[in-house]
Write a structure and sequence with these properties.
Elements (H helix, E strand, L loop, with lengths): L10 H8 L6 H8 L1 H7 L6 H12 L5 H14 L7 H15 L3 E5 L5 H7 L7 E6 L2 H13 L6 E5 L7 H10 L6 E6 L6 H10 L3 E9 L2 H5 L1 H9 L5 E9 L7 E9 L2
Parallel strand pairs: 1-2, 1-4, 2-3, 4-5
Antiparallel strand pairs: 5-7, 6-7
Length: 264
């Protein structure tokens, strides 16, 4: 499933990977698979299962950084993936270190990349629950997390916040989500769900003053309602830093990551 852009070692190949990824076959195939992504959470060409196998075949068991490196290698050299990536991943790392979460929530596991990034930085008693709408993606993410040696602190739950309350009830009953219990949230799922899902968390009071929420892809593909909300609430209920960065695995297209502290 390698990109059809020529040999990896050529200058043209490097340009396509880093400066013009939209000319790569895997990116074109991703664009063509847009309906499949919305319907199933996967591009439809098998790249998600392929990255799982790549991790199992090449990454060192029990080594989260080796797992992350394997996924980054796959995304740069074989097929673009819908995860936060290495550049924006450093922003996620820094936010997790600041939050020191005992209970963290991720919305959008995909293949487990950001769950591994987050899980490896949790404090000794910290836990991460990642909510993923696609059962197929959840199974892949669970295998990747286990290979990284993080199954004891990271769990994937199939569901979504906007399903009428079923998933939130499972989080409360099975995973200890309760008033003021959530220290950190990472949003990287359906962009139109960012704001309603955040408001749902606020409605049940799961966040507390000092909770940190990080949102990826606020510029591309874009979460305009979420961005307007955070800007409108600046200094009132939220304090936000807007990190200007790039879309994952390239340096041409700019993106925006929001890191917001809840003021209560």
């Amino acid at each position: 499933m390698a990109d059809r852009t020529g040999p990896r070692r050529t200058g043209l190949g490097a340009l396509l990977r880093d400066k013009a990824p939209f000319l790569r076959w895997s990116t074109i195939r991703f664009a063509l698979g847009g309906r499949s992504v919305l319907r199933t959470g996967q591009v439809g060409d098998g790249r998600e299962e392929a990255v799982r196998q790549h991790v199992l075949d090449t990454a060192t068991p029990g080594d989260p950084d080796s797992v992350l490196a394997a996924i980054d290698d796959f995304a740069r050299n074989r097929s673009i993936l819908m995860n936060v990536g290495d550049e924006k991943g450093l922003l996620l790392d820094a936010a997790v270190r600041r939050a020191k979460p005992l209970l963290a929530l991720e919305l959008g596991a995909y293949c487990g990349y950001s769950a591994v990034r987050t899980g490896r930085l949790l404090p000794p008693r910290g836990r991460l629950v990642s909510v993923e709408a696609s059962a197929a993606n959840a199974a892949i993410a669970t295998d990747v997390i286990a290979h990284a040696g993080l199954a004891d602190r990271v769990e994937v739950v199939v569901g979504k916040i906007g399903d009428g309350g079923a998933t939130m009830r499972r989080l409360a009953v099975d995973h200890g989500f309760a008033s003021s219990a959530v220290d950190f949230v990472f949003l990287d799922h359906l962009k139109t769900a960012y704001l309603p899902d955040l408001l749902a968390l606020l409605t049940v009071n799961w966040l507390h003053p000092g909770s940190i929420v990080v949102a990826d892809n606020v510029r591309i593909p874009g979460a305009p309602r979420y961005l307007r909300y955070m800007r409108g609430q600046e200094g009132k209920t939220w304090r936000t830093v807007e990190h200007r960065t790039h879309v994952e695995y390239q340096s041409l297209l700019h993106d925006l990551v929001l890191e917001s502290e809840y003021l209560g």
